[in-house]
Design goal:
With about 375 residues, the protein is α+β, with helices and mostly antiparallel strands. It contains 14 helices and nine strands. Helices cover about 45% and strands about 15% of the residues.
């Protein structure tokens, strides 16, 4: 009994457990991981192992507590904000200095930069994109996977899971931290002003102003932590495009008035905008047709199967209908870029903004959705 109690204590020793005290929450995510998996799956398999190894080593070093990992996203809790900041800074340095063994990842990222510039040279000028750097300067600033990091510091709900005997964290602190991370670019660390003011020493930061984050009622003052001097980033993704990705796994709100709606039909009627919008519209349309014969409970259960296949998760205390909606949006956001990329390969001269449901049969193949219909 004593040994069991001691082992449990050691597993959770770094976890914030006092809900009356503020704590720091960090979210990390790999930039454009879906595209990388579609283009260089063999390289990404090895790179993801390195990614997990490096981050878990830093968690132990900087007194962090790994709350959960979903795919390539980490959620990490800290008792002290300075430990979170120290981990974030060393993470960027570690990933830059690691020998990734090939240039495939860097080549993929530079190609993405060219696409961004071609789509919107005003929003994504050459000065903010690594693809336009001289080779020697590029090597000093970029190498391998690009991980974005968001950190917030506040009080929140702390729950001990009786089965896993691990702590989880809910409330505004989790939602804000997740949204801050989702607004950042790969290789960028963004912190809230609450983090900056709680640090015992002043860190080198660039003020990003008061930013409206999706699902957060008030603008949040954000700052960019200087980790690799010389790196320059475009405007935050919360400003320049939709931030829909798979951060729905950290939503902690519900809408009691939405119980009667057809979740898939309503969600599929959304008009998507921004990068990869055509791909997301394709996937949403396919899902709408696929789930038409089923009731909401059946749709939710099958969406969960698909999301599990793609290592997506939705946590938190939400209603059944809201969970189905979050699963749907998470799946659309993950598969949309893949659908658009495959459509471009099949139709090289395709204008992605003109691709509609009629083109789906010939231009889209979504792995994981195995049905009798041709996707």
């Amino acid at each position: 009994v004593v040994l069991y109690a001691y082992s449990r204590y050691m597993r959770n020793a770094a976890a914030p457990v006092d809900a009356t005290k503020p704590f720091a929450l960090m979210f990390t995510d790999i930039q454009s991981s879906t595209t990388l998996w579609a283009d260089i799956p063999e390289i990404m398999s090895q790179a993801l192992t390195v990614h997990h190894m490096l981050i878990r080593g830093l968690i132990a070093k900087h007194k962090g507590y790994e709350v959960k990992t979903v795919g390539d996203c980490f959620m990490i809790a800290f008792k002290e904000p300075e430990d979170a900041v120290a981990l974030a800074k060393e993470l960027q340095v570690s990933f830059l200095e690691y020998d990734w063994g090939s240039s495939f990842i860097d080549t993929a990222y530079t190609e993405m930069d060219w696409e961004l510039f071609a789509k919107d040279p005003v929003e994504y000028p050459k000065t903010c994109l690594s693809a336009f750097l001289p080779a020697e300067e590029y090597k000093k600033l970029w190498s391998g996977l690009r991980v974005r990091v968001g950190i917030h510091y506040d009080e929140g709900e702390i729950v001990l899971d009786p089965v896993s005997e691990r702590y989880d964290y809910y409330g505004t602190v989790a939602n804000v931290a997740a949204r801050v991370e989702a607004s950042a670019h790969g290789g960028q660390v963004v912190i809230t002003d609450d983090v900056a003011r709680a640090l015992p020493i002043t860190e080198s930061c660039i003020s990003l102003g008061n930013i409206n984050l999706r699902g957060v009622p008030k603008p949040i003052l954000l700052q960019q932590l200087i980790c690799i001097p010389g790196r320059v980033f475009p405007p935050l993704r919360a400003i320049s495009a939709e931030v829909d990705k798979s951060m729905s796994w950290q939503e902690h709100t519900s809408d009691s008035k939405s119980k009667s709606r057809d979740v898939v039909s309503n969600a599929a009627s959304t008009v998507y905008t921004g990068i990869d919008s055509a791909g997301r519209q394709m996937v949403a349309t396919v899902l709408k047709v696929l789930f038409a014969p089923f009731n909401n409970d059946q749709k939710r259960d099958q969406l969960q199967v698909f999301c599990t296949r793609w290592q997506l998760a939705v946590g938190g205390k939400v209603s059944k209908v809201d969970r189905a909606t979050l699963l749907f949006e998470s799946l659309v956001s993950r598969l949309g870029p893949i659908a658009q990329a495959k459509a471009k390969r099949l139709i090289p001269n395709m204008n992605p903004n003109e691709v509609g449901p009629v083109s789906l049969e010939t231009s889209v193949s979504v792995e994981g959705l195995r049905t009798s219909q041709q996707l």
